[in-house]
Amino acid sequence: MAEQIPQECWLNITQYLTRNEKLRVRELNRWFRDLHDFLYKTTLDFKQSVDSASITRLYRTGEKLYQRKDFSIAKFFYTIAADKGHASSLLNLGQMYAEGEGVEIDDKKAFEHYSNALKNGCYEANYSLGIMYKLGRGVTKDIQKARECFDKAIEQGYYWAHVQLGRMDLNKQGYEREDYRDKAKDGFAHAVAKGCKLGELELAWMYLEHEPVNVQMGLEHFQRAIKADLTEAYVELGFLYRFGLAVPTDVDKAIENYQTAIEKGDGRGCYALGRYFYEKKEYEKARELFEKGEKMGADDCGPQLGWLYLLGLGVPSNPKKAWDKFHKSRGSVNSQICLGLLYEFGVGDLPRDYAQALAHYTLALNRNCLCAQVHISRLYFNGQGVEKDSIKACQLLDEVMALENAFSLYDLGVFFEEGHFIKDLNLAQRFFKRSSDKGCNLALEKLK
After folding, report:
1. Does the model's pTM come out above 0.90?
2. Using the 8-state DSSP alphabet, how is residue 266 labeled?
3. At what angle do helices 143-155 and 125-135 cross, to 10 degrees?
4. Which of 65, 105, 226, 389 fits a disulfide with 70 by CB distance 3.0 to 4.6 angstroms?
5. Does the bond joining 212 to the residue before it have cis omega, within 30 degrees of 0?
6. Is residue 225 classed as helix, strand or coil in its secondary structure?
7. Nearest Cα to 308, choosing from 319, 299, 297, 294?
């Protein structure tokens, strides 16, 4: 049965209403309660009447709705099929809970659905479970179990798992022998051999970021990825030229690669080019590109639009619209960082809530965004939402400084240099210095 409005809430509402308004509210409350009861009974009868021949049709309907981004309705069909043990529906529900698609992010529910999908014969779920164990999402972090899941996924023909194992080998996660680099290389090569084009990009970055560095081999694998028509390769090659990493800085070549990615239908090109114009303070151009990228399905364009609305850059300031953008794209780590900042600093009508800030930063961290530790370290240093612990704050910050990713280090420098929320030029310079040490020429220019 539908629950009635609690008495204390009812009193708070009705004290502001006229007699006629109170009668109308009571009438609407009864109407919604009756509608809820009717829909609940109808849905229950429908679920019980579904036979095995209909389950696949339910799943396919859910798939079509999911592709159209009608997540809430897709969830309805997936749930009915999943209740009957349909493995692919269970897998997709896990994905929705993991990424916050039509539901709030819930890693425990995601893990539960992935586990049930595996029990019902969806061996692809091994890959998803490997990710959860690797990052400690919805379950205690367990590197060995993660490796076991990826191995099983490979046995079942899911060759993307070669890429995950290769990344773990490079970072000495569960494999610490001296030949870890060669083992990672073999894993990426196996992925390529089995048709996983992303392996070419992983090989490119391995040669560019990990000792011994081999720029020629790195660029060669970028070209192979481009020949394989991997549009992401254009975006990342554009990053190389934009930041001057392993190649001379060349803005024209960077823009050319971003535009090629866009022409090939990859919205990440819009994000990259929008970020270029954002840093040049050409906010109108940046907004247009982020809007285009959002329509093309690029995850990080929504948060960037929210950032512009939050700060009133190129658009009128609109914290509510910013919040809507962040919440809609809550599966993106950038959205989680932005939501954390909103709660930490109390923007607009939103009161400061350090516990909520920590929760959002932690969600980003659990999605392998080590940059989130910068913000978590600040909370520990100030004793906000957690017990004050200066030593832990320094440890967390040091871990971020040890990052290998020159782009992430540069972006952190820009964040503290711009000072929209917190200005710290000394910390910005440290990040730029670390980024330049990793070969980023653009960061070196910031130091001059």
Report:
1. no
2. -
3. 160
4. 65
5. yes
6. helix
7. 319
